[in-house]
Design goal:
By secondary structure, the chain is mainly α. The chain contains 43 helices and three strands. A hairpin with a 2-residue loop joins strand 2 and strand 3.
């Protein structure tokens, strides 16, 4: 220990760089000479003895025979470096600098002095003894010794001593020391490569081990930056040794991140973007397969780490470009990326019995965000979207569940990322591939390689954190597919809310073309599993399943088209590409032209013909060959159609295609004039347009009758007007349209009345319009009693109080009209009224429910025809009228109903008591006596 204290005292006496007492020397040479004098006084050893002592302490046999070479021709600086090296070696050998024990601790002053002495060793011993290549560059940071000759033995000795000191973390050595240490190692390696210096093979291995140890212990960014500095200093013929080391470290763990941050600190990267430099260094196709595999894994780990890290996020572009190039290099890299991608989404694909929580919400958001950055950040840096095509059902299902969460604040980002992923996948597909994807969603028949979210894996609120979600798995029975469920609806909403207008257009055209091109299912296939012993529940499930199999595709298409058509840019694209729409219509007509009349759907055909007429009317650039093709298909179709309305519509359309000379121009002008008025925003002009349409219908104008669907659509749109005068006249227009096509008008109004997605006020107006149309038709509307009664009774079950009230009121009026034919609906009607009176909380709806019975009684002509209905009605009304706790107006309605029943009973009894009148029907003119003929002239004879 006394020996160590001697060296500490000697260290304190030296004049070292950075210490204030060195300012007394005029130049660096004087300081070095002074330090040599101080050391020689204390140690009393010659330079040769110093070298021998250092080699002996190292126990390095490979340096023993080189002692003379090391001590040969020593300059003052070289002697000083050897003396200093012995001091450092002795202190490092006798003091446990790595220990945190109290007895081993040294003062900060001693640490500072030791570091300063190491800097002197590097400056006087290492820098002058490097390979000649490090001095050839202009402005090199290394200086050559006075003899202009490198002593590699001396450099190797210094490296051996520093290797035991340089890795002590408590010393906090400067970057310059590490740089010179690495330069000394590479100098020896370069000299060996050039046969300028010879060492044994185990020494070369030991030198490489020293480099690896620096890579392990020191910051990798610093190591890589030092490599880049050394690479830049050396001439071209000597760069391969450093380049090889750069590649080896790049391929090892942590190399990619080290390269990124080393380039960020480099000044030369300003001329060229970092991403391009990184791509060239990382993604060379000539690299070994294992090296490329290592780079792929490193980049994927870096991307996963950098998603939520702003410091790392700036380098994601460089990482993505490199990953994309590696992905394109070979099939092995592609399989590696695909395997990683599946691992990211694997928890959503399978069911694990040993856990409940599949994934925390933050982890789910991070993974989706990572996929978004990888596939959607740009068209240059992102990965190919075809990798995600198989995950489309999974992504759409996740988006649907995320959007169903009520808390939008923390789901907005992940829902946007999911939507962008879905849009990017679809937008990058070809025409035929996109058509196949859309058809798969419509029919719910997916390719085998597509992956779906497990039915038992769901997104729910975290009970421990109410403002957060989590992905869990629960044992649930698979639900029967709903007629109105499916991925197509979600996809349509995503398209509608996006800026991908051209993609929206292509999807719309694809869906439109699929409508009549879906595979048909035979009735034998639907009823193949009929079983007479099935329970009621089994029969119900089977009916739902069969209907789903038969109609779900068309329902999916109709819902999707209804959503997409509200996308405003889509309408512009349709008008600009009207030829595509006509070609789709032409294909539909070609299919119908080869079918029998039984297979032709009249409603679909009506819509097609109406749409075709509108397009031909408004489009000016329709090519003649398209028109002729349409005319040919219409000519084939017309003889097969038995429906007179369809036949008439086809005939008018054929005349329209043939040319303007065959069309009544005056009729067309009057129709367009009325249409322009009806589409005007001014109420008085709308009413004038309605009057003109009513006049045209009364005159049985051919062009108007052929365009009845257009008029119906215009009338429905006008119903939304807030002006009561416009609304009342619009109802008159519907009443006039009923005489043209009553079935269509009834169905249109009923569908709009039950459309839950429409505004409530509009639905109430449609319900009133439907009632007025029924009044216009009168008792002849018994032909639609099922449609009308079911429509209003469905409205009576609505959760909206005002809508329920309106439905009961309209139902009461309808019962007045159809009182003679409501027997088969009476039980359901009475159950609805009982349900409203017992569970309803909206008083006007309850009053309207009682009014249904009152109006039904008022409309009865002969009570004997309703005898099975009178007792339940009487009991209910009697109960309501006599209960004091009942609402006053309900009691009043019940009393009026009882009074009506009393009057009807008295009339019936009076009629029974009176003698029956005998009715005699006499037909005159048969077998009567012939009148005498006054004129017997031959011209008057029969």
């Amino acid at each position: 220990m006394s020996n160590v204290m001697k060296y500490w005292l000697l260290l304190e006496s030296l004049n070292l760089p950075g210490i204030s007492r060195t300012a007394q020397f005029e130049n660096e040479n004087d300081r070095v000479l002074e330090n040599i004098t101080l050391i020689q006084k204390s140690l009393s050893l010659s330079p040769e003895e110093i070298v021998g002592s250092i080699v002996a302490n190292l126990q390095a046999n490979h340096l023993k025979h080189r002692e003379n070479e090391i001590a040969k021709n020593m300059s003052i600086e070289a002697k000083y470096s050897m003396y200093s090296l012995l001091i450092v070696q002795t202190i490092g050998k006798n003091v446990n600098l790595r220990s945190d024990a109290v007895e081993d601790l040294i003062s900060e002053n001693h640490k500072t002095l030791l570091i300063a002495l190491l800097e002197d060793i590097v400056d006087k011993g290492v820098k002058p003894n490097l390979h000649s290549g490090f001095y050839k560059s202009k402005g090199s940071i290394f200086c050559r010794n006075a003899e202009n000759q490198t002593n590699f033995c001396r450099a190797q000795l210094i490296v051996e001593v520093l290797s035991s000191i340089i890795h002590i973390p408590t010393l906090r050595l400067s970057e310059d020391i590490f740089l010179c240490y690495m330069a000394a190692i590479f100098s020896i390696l370069l000299a060996c490569d050039a046969k300028e210096y010879t060492v044994e093979q185990n020494c070369l291995t030991a030198l490489q081990t020293k480099l690896n140890k620096i890579w392990t212990d020191m910051p990798k960014v610093l190591y890589y930056r030092n490599l880049m500095l050394l690479y830049g200093i050396l001439p071209a013929e000597q760069k391969p040794r450093i380049h090889k080391e750069m590649l080896l470290k790049l391929w090892s763990n942590g190399g990619f991140v080290a390269l990124l941050f080393a380039l960020q600190k480099s000044e030369k990267t300003e001329e060229q973007p970092i991403s391009q430099i990184v791509e060239k260094l990382v993604a060379q196709p000539s690299y070994p397969r294992r090296a490329q595999e290592s780079m792929v894994q490193q980049i994927l780990r870096f991307l996963a780490t950098s998603v939520d890290n702003k410091d790392l996020g700036v380098h994601m572009g460089a990482a993505l470009v490199s990953l994309r190039r590696l992905y394109d290099n070979n099939d092995e890299n592609k399989e590696l990326v695909k395997k990683w991608l599946k691992g990211q989404l694997q928890p959503l694909l399978e069911f694990h019995e040993d856990r409940i929580t599949v994934m925390e919400w933050n982890e789910f958001c991070t993974r989706i965000s990572l996929l978004f950055h990888m596939f959607c950040t740009s068209t240059v840096e992102c990965m190919p979207s075809e990798l995600l095509t198989a995950y489309l059902p999974l992504l759409i299902a996740c988006h649907q569940e995320v959007c169903e969460c009520t808390e939008k604040s923390f789901t907005m980002a992940v829902s946007n990322h999911l939507a962008q992923l879905i849009l990017r996948i679809l937008n990058n597909r070809g025409k035929e591939e996109l058509r196949g994807i859309i058809k798969s969603f419509v029919l719910a028949q997916y390719p085998l390689e597509w992956l779906h979210k497990h039915a038992n894996v769901i997104i729910e609120y975290d009970p421990l954190q109410l403002e957060s979600l989590r992905i869990v798995q629960k044992d649930m029975e698979s639900e029967t597919n709903s007629l109105f469920s499916g991925h197509m609806n979600t996809l349509s909403i995503i398209l509608k809310e996006s800026s991908f207008s051209l993609l929206c257009y292509h999807v719309f055209i694809t869906l439109f073309g699929l409508f009549t091109n879906l595979p048909k299912q035979s009735s034998e296939e639907v009823n193949a599993n009929d079983d007479l012993l099935q329970t009621e529940e089994d029969v119900e499930n089977k009916i739902v399943r069969d209907i789903t199999q038969k109609y779900n595709g068309k329902i999916q298409i109709i819902n999707a088209l209804q959503i997409l058509i509200t996308h405003k840019p889509l309408k512009i694209l349709l008008m600009e590409n009207i030829k595509d729409v006509l070609i789709v219509l032409q294909d539909m007509l070609a299919l119908y032209a080869v079918e029998t009349d039984d297979d032709i759907d009249s409603s679909v055909m009506t819509i097609l013909l109406t749409l075709m007429g509108e397009i031909l009317e408004n489009a000016t650039d329709v090519m003649e060959d398209v028109k002729m093709e349409l005319h040919k298909h219409l000519s084939k179709l017309e003889p097969k159609v038995l429906n007179p309305k369809l036949k008439f519509q086809i005939s008018c359309l054929r005349k329209q295609i043939q040319g303007p000379t065959n069309i009544n121009d005056t009729s067309k002008e009057r129709f367009e004039e009325a249409r322009l008025l009806l589409e005007s925003p001014e109420p008085y002009m709308q009413v004038e347009g309605i009057q003109k349409f009513i006049q045209l219908i009364r005159e049985k104008d051919t062009f108007t009758l052929n365009s009845v669907h257009v008029v119906s659509a215009l009338a429905l749109n006008t119903l939304k007007s807030t002006e009561s005068y416009t609304f009342l006249n619009c109802v008159r227009l519907f009443a006039a349209l009923v005489y043209v096509d009553e079935h269509t008008i009834m169905e249109i109004l009923c569908d709009d009345y039950l459309n839950n997605s429409a505004a409530t006020d509009y639905r109430l107006v449609v319900g009133e319009a439907l009632l007025k149309v029924c009044k216009e038709v009168g008792q002849l509307c018994y032909r639609y009693k099922g449609l009308l009664l079911n429509t209003y009774m469905s409205g009576c079950r609505s959760p909206l109080d005002e809508f329920r009230y309106s439905s009961f009121s309209n139902l009461a009026q309808l019962c007045k009209i159809l009182s003679f034919d409501v027997h088969q609906y009476f039980e359901e009607l009475l159950q609805l009224i009982n349900c409203e009176l017992s569970t309803g909380k909206y008083m006007p709806a309850k009053r309207a429910a009682v009014m249904v019975l009152s109006d039904l009684l008022a409309a009865m002509d002969n009570l004997l025809d309703y005898q099975d209905m009178l007792l339940p009605i009487y009991r209910l009304l009697k109960l309501l009228a006599s209960t004091e706790s009942t609402d006053e107006k309900i009691r009043l309605h019940a009393a009026i109903g009882l009074e009506n029943l009393s009057v009807k009973c008295k009339e019936l009894l009076t009629a029974i008591g009176q003698p029956q009148l005998q009715k005699e029907i006499k037909i005159t003119g048969i077998k009567d006596k012939e009148k005498k003929k006054l004129n017997n002239h031959i011209l008057y004879m029969n």
